[in-house]
Amino acid sequence: MRSALRGHIDPVLPTGLRSELTHRGLGSRLRQGRTDVVHQPIDALIQAAPWVLGGLAVYGLARAARRQSVTRRS
């Protein structure tokens, strides 16, 4: 989150997206022999949580600022 606020957003392709698409990434992730199949949904939550929480914080701050500006006008 800190790097995104500084404007240093990581590019998507070096994260392995290209190899996921070209080397049967989905098929290998769905095999039952993998030990990390159980915690894959948790990984998605861990990756998305800071972005979701940051978005909710911005939304809450914008909403509070709007309410405050409407109250001052009255």
Give the key terms.
74 residues, mainly alpha, 4 helices, elongated
Describe this structure in words.
The chain has 74 residues and is an all-alpha fold. It has one domain (2-73). It is built from four helices and no strands. The relative contact order is 0.07. The model has no long low-confidence stretch (mean pLDDT 79).
Instruction: Report the sheet-strand fraction.
Output: under 5%
Which descriptor suits the 3D outline?
elongated
Decide which structural class fits the backbone. Answer: mainly alpha
Q: Could you give the order of the helices and strands?
A: HHHH
CA-CA gap between termini? 38 Å
Give the total of domains. 1
- The overall strand count is 0
**Sequence stretches where pLDDT stays below 50 over 5 or more residues:** none
Q: Radius of gyration, Cα only, in angstroms?
A: 20 Å
How much helix is in the residues?
A: 55-70%
Compose a concise summary of this entry:
This protein is mostly helical. Helices cover 68% and strands 0% of the residues.
How would the blueprint of this fold be written?
Blueprint: H1 2-5, H2 17-22, H3 25-30, H4 40-73
